[in-house]
Amino acid sequence: MAIVKGEVNKEVMRKLLHFVAITVSAVVPLLLSTYIFLKLITLISAILVVISVSSGTLDSIRKDDDKSWGILYFALFYTVSVFILPPGFFPYLAVGLLILAVSDSLAALSGSSTKKMKYILTVEKSYLGSFIFFVSSFIISWLFPVYFSELFGLESFDQSYLLIFAFVVSVLLTLIEALSTKGIDNLLIPLFGTILSVIFLGAQNDELLQMFVPGLFLAGVIAFISYKVSFLTANGSISTFILAGLIFGLGGWKWSLPIMTFFVLSSLLSKVRKKKNAVVESYFEKTGTRDFGQVFANGGVGGVLVIVNALFPNDIWYFAYIASLAAVTADTWATETGTLKKNKTYNILNFKPLPQGMSGGISVAGTTGGIIGAIIVTASGFYWFENSVWLVSSLLVIAGVFGSFVDSYLGATLQVQYNCKVCGKITENKYHCGANSDIFRGNKAVNNDLVNLIAGVFGSLFFILIWGLIQL
User: Fold this and answer.
1) CA 66 to chain centroid
2) Which residues of 115-134 are buried (b: 16+ CB within 10 A; e: fewer)?
3) 88: which of 209, 235, 343, 440 lies 20 to 30 Å off by Cα?
4) pLDDT of amino acid 1
5) How many other C-beta atoms lie within 10 A of the C-beta of residue 94?
6) Could you tell me whether strands 117-118 and 438-441 are parallel, antiparallel, or unpaired per DSSP bridges?
7) What DSSP assignment string belongs to 396-430?
């Protein structure tokens, strides 16, 4: 679609405001000795932004007249950061903010002036825009620490270390920006830019950074191969590279092997089930080829925990990570083995017969398969269990099975189900038999990906709770 002159001018003005506001937000905390007035002004500004976005006042500054969610995400992120971060962390925050201010603005303006291409299925990005984002974010994350090294409490940085750091940051943030839609990059770019800066610039851990680059390479190889063999969609491949890059890079083999075990074996099992019993496929919202939603639903908890562990090392985060993977593995394997062949399926709420493949159903074969999946994933981390090995392993398997039952319970209660207007089948798909389906039950905001994510969270929380009680 051609962009008229008025739309271009509006976009330039919007990005100019974007650049000025965020640059000021990055620089001001570095110049202050007291932060009371900064916190007060930030809080008032955030309240005004919430009111403006809710009332639609800011919609007119967008060329598409859509909701200005990006400014809301940024306002909330910045307000929380100003209130919870110690002053010594503001230089690391500035790195993430400057990348958002400069790189995101340049990418948007250059991208709007050239032919678009699709990075993922739901949002268009340009090659030129992403290239400019990569180059500019590389320059910022490299030169800012060089010229303002005193802000980081160090006299100087090793140049080779900084160049590797800048490469890692620019690669990950470029891909995050490419996947982002509806303004969520205004939250994710400064968030991950700040986190990576704290981890690598704060500690200057040469060993960790040197481990991160091979981890990033391995993640790229796996993501590429998985896309080629149809384990992943295009956006799922990019998501896997980001998520696996963080887990492989920050966690090494200790964290890498369990998630690789889950991903490879679950993908193969999905392919086998699809060949054996493709009839139940019509019930599922997603196919065996994972997209970005499924990637983050299954591995998002692990991504958060590996970052938390890098910032605050503790064995509990690794155990919670295994528990989350055991939960999503148990759920995936329960579905795949339970529908591998035709067998009786029952509603988890009342144990009445249920069509095979329908959300909320459980079966003997599926439950058995889920337990086996939880055992295998737990075993993949067994080498790194140093104390109370068998107790920890048993609790992790139980946590995984518990998480899978939470998934089934939510599938039978809150997860949205649709009634196909054509064939009358109850399905997770809102588009079935070539037509839009009617909501049968559940909440339309609660889809299969969200339910999977919650199952992983519950698996982790279950282990942390039980382990904490045992340690009392």
Assistant:
1) 24
2) eeeebbeeeebbebbbebbb
3) 209
4) 40
5) 27
6) unpaired
7) HHHHHHHHHHHHHHHHHHTB-EEE-TTT--EES-S
